[in-house]
């Protein structure tokens, strides 16, 4: 539906909040004020969407091992490889590894092809890395993968507990909604996280518990609920297994929980007292819970507390899983996981199988769960998989034991990769690459974390020969001989079939039923407004389970006794530190998209490891040193960020950096492929590692107008910046000729050099001049070079003189703006601090003076932190 | 009765002594001033602009007859001093004896003339005073005339540029490997040489003059290696020699110059010496700034006040239009010295700063010298510069300024994007050892 002339309503492709955006080609996007998820808000990533849709680096044509081929050829190759593998080695020798970035229609067709036609359930998704434990926990307790509540519950609660969730950075708009509601209503917010993240800004108090001890905390809560007589006797009728769960939790005495979590008794008492006393309580949980080898049990430990108190599916109360990807939920609904059929139907359930097969009139139906992500790539490695098709995801970076995964992909005889980006760490391994259409070019639906189905609509022309994923899969399906089953002409046609199938599921008593949309015509599909499922004759949206009716065989919720388990790998003398992984504010996944935006790359421009100062002292690591984080699986070299945000004994490394953007920063190479036995989700936050200072002979910073190829130095990290790129550099040996080094680095062999040498300090600065302007600047010194990076990058874009650039900092008359805090308006930390000194005493006041924090609001926690930082100083004056 | 002050030499140093003295103590002395040139005091360092036709003599006069008359100074210009009788405290001149209570010797220096055959030929000049300047201007009036300047130092190059601007075909012969070696390092010297060549001045370094050739008038210069440069005018500008003959004759201690202490006093308490003729702590001086400093000290000493001359760093600018060059302090390499070098060969810019310990001790700049004064002040004041060393060479525009965000300055990361020190606001409930009181 057009919002106004030329503007398209669509949905943001980043996190699971699923915000509506108003888009127009060539214009910055705006938040859609009518979308129920965001009501006009956008985060920094969403606000910069228009900067990420350029064609730079796009895959525009099918290729086979680097050679351009026709679509017909490409489709034929994929179809032949899959047909032959299935014929010779059985259907289970084929596999799809797909993505939460796919639209529901794409997912549906992929799932149909594999489970109903090729006849294998070997289709799994990167959502496995994200929320598979929530799915397993939901299914175990509710009999269905149902998020009971809605976003409004976070605003209507009196207490919100954020568990293992950096909501401020990973679900910024939901965080903003919570922050606004808290400001209005005084919601008590508690964060549960070993690490202090930006989200703690909103917390009334923080529970910085020992890594992996969450199940102890929630078992303790369960025991405290029982001890306080706070069980809901009426709701108990809807529960099975409550007694066993309570019995298992009785171990979790206050004293024991204090020991296991490292939290003070008073702290625990306070939390338990608050939780028990607050009827309207929402427990939001995310990757900190899910990404664990006992993630499903941790989910159960949370669900148990809400079930025994009946605090579920009611206004302002319930457990709430927030998902990482825009359509992780859609993938779950459509059966994109190896252990599901479509529409929340069960693969192990014969009635479900035959219903689906009947609906599809398909030649076969898979009868048992397929390989989950980690197992799938193990099967690749040991030769069981003969044909693999990866869509819109980058497992060579994102999966645990990423180096082994890379080798596993290489071991598969035939690998197809669909992507929008030409060069990723994964496309590099493909036999055939297929150009997919990207966000803004394709059309379909996504489901967000609170079950709201929204349309993604095209507002850009499809570039080159790119095709939407559903179409590519249909093409392959037809080429494999199933002409009728994959004859869909449009995403609307796919959606209608899917909605009709959900009616079959609904008839079987399942939760997911959108059959009221089965007859939707193309125009109505085009205009489909955001709608929360179910959408059936009997139920429209709303919440689940307040009525005590569950999708289990007994109709009652199944509580699970939880025996807390520590992370699989324990710190040892060789690997004494726990490795935590996660996201940063302005980047997304493996950087293929957000790194295209200089604005988004400004916030954090290189990979880093948060190290506690005590650990840094212990291992001889100084401020801004490069640090080698390693274990027997691999190593990364990243910048040390000394901070008490990360607890002693842990390091935190973001997951985003790939070989395209840094020399050696794929943190998943360090994560062992240990998975939860129920969900198959890997334990991404509890590897163990050693850290050591990376002994660099020199450190450098380079900024260039235009392109910058990956430098060949032992350490490098490059990022879009200003009118080109910037790079952090380091190596173990200094080049003999810095001018020559710069000319090679900037690919400007003819450029004139302007240099500054401080030989005694071994400090070198080189500016290269081409066509009368500075083409690039290089700074090098034995220590990390101390210059105002933002100033250099901006100066380069603005055509500043070589001397002004080489000075490396603004003139005396212009203060250094400092590190970017507000990406939307490019406001630096020093600028904010100056405004605070000039009397801006609140986030709002800063916004009035500098506009910082007034667009997307993602930096508001950081603005508040700067206020806190400035306050003691101001008070002292 | 007022004491008698006699000053020998009416140059820039003595002019400054008198100015200071008369300003502070207008009635302290009866003053007699002897000057060898038959005119008042002018700013000798501005002779080059006069030679180049950019200034006239009238523009560079500092003290004319009226000034001396106004201050009651008895001027004896053009009257040669023959001797000093220290025992009787009288100065002997052509016209008799002049008694003194205090005597200031400011005889300056004489150009050094290299002892080669032909040095006395007509058309061979030195470059010291207005007469020399006028002679050069006259020589340049002959169409197609050729000049050879021996000496590629400050003065020689100013002479060369002046003659070149007056249309002469000029060659500079310089004994050393690069021009202005006392003020420039080899790189800056080479840049200067290239600049001068571009302006049509031929430069020959490592040129050892063998003889000046000519019968009745100079005809050219021949080098040791046999190279011959035809010339209608030869200007020798190879250095100066302090003029100490009077002092020597009077039995005062002399080395290369007249030996003075910090108060500018010779070994005779009644006699002071200032300017190019003195030797202070073993050094002699030829630039104007130290001479002015000495003059200030001498004036105080004459007024009976304690004062001491402290040698300061020196700065040089070449007064050649279009050549941008600056040199200050000590830029020799050596143990404990470090340098920072800026090179922009395309734009012909070169800057070198020499550091010792915490301080800047020397600066050479070529092609872009606008920050010269600032560097000079840093050298003179011995300002510690370590904190701004990384940007020092970019001048005052980049000095000071706000502190850089510490982490963002060394990595592409924000330093402390949110609080992690100080008092956390959210009542951090951490580990058991930090138990918090319940609300």
Give a summary of the structure in a few sentences:
The complex is a heterodimer of chains A (about 900) and B (about 450). In chain A, about 30% of the residues lie in helices and about 20% in strands.
Can you describe what's shown?
The complex is a heterodimer of chains A (877) and B (439). Chain A contains 29 helices and 35 strands. Chain A has 877 residues and is an alpha/beta fold. By secondary structure, chain B is α/β, with parallel strands linked by helices. Chain B contains ten helices and 28 strands. Chain B has helices at residues 12-24, 47-51, 57-60, 65-70, 130-140, 154-165, 186-198, 245-249, 288-302, 372-381; strands at 3-8, 29-35, 41-42, 61-63, 74-77, 81-85, 90-93, 96-99, 102-105, 109-111, 124-126, 146-150, 169-173, 202-204, 209-214, 218-223, 228-230, 233-236, 240-242, 258-260, 271-273, 278-280, 315-317, 325-329, 337-344, 349-356, 359-366, 428-429. Chain B has a five-stranded parallel sheet with strand order 5-2-1-9-21. In chain B, strand 13, helix 7 and strand 14 form a beta-alpha-beta unit. In chain B, helix 1 runs parallel beside helix 9 (288-302). The longest helix of chain B has 15 residues, at 288-302. Chain B is globular. Mean pLDDT of chain B is 88; it is low at 417-439. Classes of the chains: A alpha/beta (877), B alpha/beta (439). At the A-B interface, strand 11, helix 11, strand 31, helix 26 and helix 29 of A face strand 25 and strand 28 of B.
Chart the SSEs and their pairings.
The complex is a heterodimer of chains A (877) and B (439).
Chain A: E1 2-4, E2 7-11, E3 20-23, E4 30-31, H1 44-47, E5 63-64, E6 67-68, H2 71-89, E7 94-98, H3 104-118, E8 123-125, H4 132-142, H5 151-156, E9 159-163, H6 167-170, H7 172-185, E10 188-192, E11 205-207, H8 214-227, E12 239-240, H9 242-249, H10 254-261, H11 265-277, E13 281-285, H12 287-290, H13 295-308, E14 318-321, H14 328-334, H15 350-360, H16 373-381, E15 387-391, H17 395-398, H18 402-411, E16 414-419, E17 432-435, E18 444-447, E19 452-456, H19 469-479, H20 491-507, H21 522-527, E20 531-532, E21 557-558, E22 577-582, H22 598-603, E23 608-611, H23 613-618, E24 626-631, E25 634-642, E26 650-654, E27 687-693, E28 698-705, E29 715-721, E30 724-731, H24 738-745, E31 752-758, E32 763-770, E33 773-781, H25 789-798, H26 802-807, E34 820-822, E35 827-828, H27 829-837, H28 843-850, H29 860-876
Parallel strand pairs in A: 7-8, 7-15, 9-10, 9-13, 10-11, 12-21, 13-14, 15-16, 16-17, 22-26, 23-25
Antiparallel strand pairs in A: 1-2, 2-3, 3-4, 5-6, 5-17, 18-19, 19-20, 22-27, 23-26, 24-25, 24-27, 28-30, 28-33, 29-30, 31-32, 32-33, 34-35
Chain B: E1 3-8, H1 12-24, E2 29-35, E3 41-42, H2 47-51, H3 57-60, E4 61-63, H4 65-70, E5 74-77, E6 81-85, E7 90-93, E8 96-99, E9 102-105, E10 109-111, E11 124-126, H5 130-140, E12 146-150, H6 154-165, E13 169-173, H7 186-198, E14 202-204, E15 209-214, E16 218-223, E17 228-230, E18 233-236, E19 240-242, H8 245-249, E20 258-260, E21 271-273, E22 278-280, H9 288-302, E23 315-317, E24 325-329, E25 337-344, E26 349-356, E27 359-366, H10 372-381, E28 428-429
Parallel strand pairs in B: 1-2, 1-9, 2-5, 9-21, 11-18, 12-13, 12-18, 13-14, 20-22
Antiparallel strand pairs in B: 3-4, 6-7, 7-8, 10-19, 15-16, 16-17, 23-24, 24-27, 25-26, 26-27
């Amino acid at each position: 539906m057009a919002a106004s002339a030329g503007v398209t309503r669509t949905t943001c492709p980043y996190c699971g909040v699923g915000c509506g955006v108003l888009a127009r080609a060539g214009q910055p996007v705006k938040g859609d004020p009518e979308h129920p998820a965001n009501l006009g808000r956008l985060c920094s990533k969403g606000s910069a969407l228009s900067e990420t849709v350029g064609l730079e680096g796009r895959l525009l044509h099918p290729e086979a091992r680097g050679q351009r081929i026709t679509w017909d050829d490409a489709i034929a190759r994929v179809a032949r490889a899959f047909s032959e593998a299935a014929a010779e080695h059985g259907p289970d020798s084929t596999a799809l590894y797909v993505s939460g970035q796919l639209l529901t229609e794409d997912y549906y067709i992929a799932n149909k092809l594999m489970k109903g036609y090729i006849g294998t359930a070997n289709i799994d998704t990167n959502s496995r890395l994200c929320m598979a434990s929530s799915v397993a926990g939901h299914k175990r307790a509710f009999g269905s993968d149902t998020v009971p509540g809605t976003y409004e519950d976070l605003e209507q609660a009196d207490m919100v507990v954020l568990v293992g969730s950096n909501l401020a950075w990973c679900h910024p708009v939901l965080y903003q909604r919570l922050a606004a509601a808290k400001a209005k209503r005084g919601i008590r917010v508690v964060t549960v996280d070993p690490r202090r993240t930006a989200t703690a800004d909103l917390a009334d108090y923080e529970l910085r518990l020992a890594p992996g001890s969450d199940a102890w905390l929630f078992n303790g809560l369960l025991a405290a609920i029982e001890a306080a007589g706070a069980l809901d006797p009426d709701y108990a009728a809807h529960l099975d297994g409550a007694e066993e769960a309570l019995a298992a939790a009785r171990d979790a005495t206050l004293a024991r929980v204090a020991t296991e979590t490292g939290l003070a008794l008073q702290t625990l008492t306070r939390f338990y007292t608050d939780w028990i006393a607050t009827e309207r309580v929402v427990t939001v949980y995310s990757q900190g819970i899910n990404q664990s080898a006992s993630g499903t049990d941790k989910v159960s430990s949370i669900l148990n507390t809400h079930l025994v108190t009946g605090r579920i599916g009611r206004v302002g109360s319930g457990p709430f899983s927030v998902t990482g990807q825009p359509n992780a939920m859609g993938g779950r609904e459509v059966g994109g996981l190896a252990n599901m059929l479509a529409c929340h139907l069960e693969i192990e359930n014969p009635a479900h199988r035959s219903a689906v097969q009947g609906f599809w009139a398909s030649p076969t139906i898979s009868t048992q769960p397929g390989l989950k992500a980690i197992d799938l790539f193990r099967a690749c490695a040991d030769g069981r998989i003969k044909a693999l098709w990866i869509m819109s995801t980058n497992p060579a970076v994102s999966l645990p034991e990423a180096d082994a995964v890379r080798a596993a992909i290489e071991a598969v005889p035939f690998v197809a990769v669909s992507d929008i980006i030409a060069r990723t760490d994964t496309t590099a391994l493909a036999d055939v690459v297929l150009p997919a259409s990207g966000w803004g070019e394709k059309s379909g639906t996504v489901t967000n974390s609170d079950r709201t189905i929204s349309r993604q609509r095209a507002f850009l022309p499809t570039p080159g020969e790119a095709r939407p994923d559903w179409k590519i899969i249909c093409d392959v399906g037809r080429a494999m001989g199933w002409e009728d089953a994959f004859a869909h002409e449009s995403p609307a046609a796919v959606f209608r079939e899917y909605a009709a199938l959900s009616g079959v599921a609904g008839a079987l008593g399942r939760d997911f039923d959108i059959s009221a949309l089965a007859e939707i015509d193309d125009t109505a599909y085009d205009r489909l407004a955001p709608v929360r499922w179910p959408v059936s004759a009997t139920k429209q949206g709303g919440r689940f389970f307040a009525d005590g009716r569950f999708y289990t065989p007994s109709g009652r919720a199944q509580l699970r006794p939880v025996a807390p388990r520590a992370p699989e790998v324990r710190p040892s003398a060789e690997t004494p530190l726990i490795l935590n992984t996660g996201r940063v504010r302005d980047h997304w996944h493996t950087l293929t998209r957000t790194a295209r935006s200089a604005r988004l790359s400004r916030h954090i421009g290189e990979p880093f490891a948060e190290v506690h100062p005590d650990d840094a002292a212990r291992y001889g690591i100084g401020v801004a040193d490069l640090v080698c984080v390693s274990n027997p699986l691999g190593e990364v070299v990243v910048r040390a960020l000394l901070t008490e945000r990360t607890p002693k004994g842990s390091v935190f490394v973001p997951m985003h950096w790939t070989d395209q953007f840094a020399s050696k920063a794929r943190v998943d190479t360090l994560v062992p492929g240990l998975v939860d036995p129920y969900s198959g989700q890997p334990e991404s936050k509890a590897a163990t590692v050693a850290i050591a200072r990376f002994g660099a002979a020199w450190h450098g910073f380079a900024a260039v107008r235009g392109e910058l190829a990956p430098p060949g130095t032992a350490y490098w990290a490059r990022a879009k910046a200003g009118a080109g790129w910037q790079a952090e550099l380091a190596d173990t040996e200094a080049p003999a000729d810095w001018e020559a080094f710069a000319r090679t680095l900037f690919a400007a062999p003819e450029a004139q050099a302007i240099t500054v040498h401080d030989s005694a300090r071994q400090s070198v600065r080189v500016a290269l001049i081409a066509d009368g302007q500075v083409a690039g600047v290089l700074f090098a010194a034995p220590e990390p070079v101390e210059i105002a990076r933002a100033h250099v990058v901006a100066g380069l874009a603005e055509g500043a003189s070589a001397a002004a650039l080489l000075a490396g900092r603004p003139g005396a008359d212009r203060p250094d703006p400092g590190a970017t805090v507000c990406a939307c308006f490019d406001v630096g930390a020093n600028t904010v601090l100056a405004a605070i000194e000039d009397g801006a005493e609140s986030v709002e006041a800063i916004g009035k003076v500098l506009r910082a924090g007034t667009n997307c609001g993602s930096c508001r926690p950081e603005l508040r932190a700067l206020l806190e930082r400035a306050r003691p100083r101001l008070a002292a004056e | 009765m007022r004491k008698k002050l006699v000053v020998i030499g009416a140059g820039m140093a003595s002019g400054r002594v008198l100015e200071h003295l008369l300003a502070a103590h207008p009635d302290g002395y009866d003053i007699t001033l002897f000057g060898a040139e038959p005119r008042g005091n002018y700013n000798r360092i501005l002779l080059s602009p006069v030679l180049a036709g950019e200034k006239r003599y009238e523009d560079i006069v500092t003290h004319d007859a009226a000034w001396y008359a106004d201050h009651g100074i008895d001027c004896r210009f053009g009257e040669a001093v023959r001797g000093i009788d220290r025992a009787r405290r009288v100065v002997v001149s052509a016209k008799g004896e002049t008694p003194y209570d205090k005597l200031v010797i400011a005889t300056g220096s004489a150009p050094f003339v290299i002892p080669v055959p032909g040095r006395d030929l007509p058309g061979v000049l030195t470059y010291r005073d207005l007469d020399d300047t006028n002679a050069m201007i006259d020589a340049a009036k002959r169409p197609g005339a050729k000049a050879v300047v021996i000496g590629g130092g400050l003065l020689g190059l100013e002479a060369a540029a002046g003659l070149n601007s007056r249309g002469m075909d000029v060659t500079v012969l310089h004994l050393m490997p690069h021009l202005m070696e006392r003020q420039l390092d080899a790189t800056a010297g080479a840049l200067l040489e290239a600049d001068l060549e571009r302006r049509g001045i031929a430069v020959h370094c490592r040129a050892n003059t063998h003889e000046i050739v000519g019968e009745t008038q100079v005809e050219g210069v021949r080098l040791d290696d046999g190279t011959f440069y035809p010339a209608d005018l030869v200007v020798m500008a190879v250095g100066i020699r302090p003029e100490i003959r009077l002092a020597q004759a009077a039995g005062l201690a002399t080395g290369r110059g007249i030996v003075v202490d910090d108060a500018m006093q010779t070994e005779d308490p009644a006699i002071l010496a200032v300017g190019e003729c003195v030797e202070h702590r073993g050094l002699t001086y030829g630039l104007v700034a130290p001479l002015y400093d000495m003059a200030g000290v001498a004036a105080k000493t004459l007024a009976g006040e304690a004062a001491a001359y402290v040698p300061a760093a020196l700065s040089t600018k070449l007064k050649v239009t279009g050549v941008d060059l600056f040199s200050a302090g000590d830029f020799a390499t050596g143990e404990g010295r470090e340098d920072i070098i800026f090179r922009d060969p395309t734009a012909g810019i070169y800057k070198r700063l020499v550091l010792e310990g915490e301080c800047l001790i020397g600066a050479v700049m070529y092609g872009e010298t606008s920050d010269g004064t600032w560097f000079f002040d840093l050298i003179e004041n011995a300002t510690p510069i370590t904190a701004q060393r990384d940007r020092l060479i970019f001048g005052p525009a980049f000095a000071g300024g706000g502190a850089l965000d510490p982490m963002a300055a060394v990595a592409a990361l924000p330093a402390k994007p949110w609080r992690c020190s100080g008092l956390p606001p959210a009542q951090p409930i951490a580990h058991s050892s930090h138990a918090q009181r319940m609300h």
